[in-house]
Amino acid sequence: MTDRKDIDLAALRVRLEERRADILAHSTHSEDYRKPVELDQQAVGRLSRMDALQNQQMHLEQERRRAAELDRIEKTLKRMDDDKYGHCHNCGEDIEKKRLEFDPTTPLCVGCADRVSHV
């Protein structure tokens, strides 16, 4: 899987797969909340409709964030399968073990992440 012997790759993979399953479950659960809000002034007052629209937008944003996290997880699992996990995407150096334990999806070492955030 990877040449890194200092990280527990199996445990990190389990965390990622569990998180992926959790994201997919939440996405399915909130599907109804993301549907278009019906315009029926007789059944729903203007403020209630505005509240429904706001709730819909919040659920759409949550789904966008879930999709982005799911994408990061899928890319990380692919890096694991391709023996590229644990190495910085930019410089190729090892990513610190504690950084990977905190966020297994991180593709950058601290130095490269710091340079990217200051650009």
UniProtKB/TrEMBL annotation:
Family matches, as InterPro entries: Znf_DskA_TraR
Keywords, ordered alphabetically: Coiled coil, Metal-binding, Zinc, Zinc-finger
Alphabetized Pfam families for the sequence: zf-dskA_traR (PF01258)
Domain of life: Bacteria
Kinase keyword on record: no
Coiled-coil annotated spans: 50-80
Domain Zinc finger DksA/TraR C4-type: 85-117
A single MF term (Gene Ontology): zinc ion binding
Residue ranges covered by zinc fingers (dksA C4-type): 88-112
Protein name per Swiss-Prot or TrEMBL: Conjugal transfer protein TraR
Lineage per the UniProt record: Bacteria, Pseudomonadati, Pseudomonadota, Alphaproteobacteria, Rhodospirillales
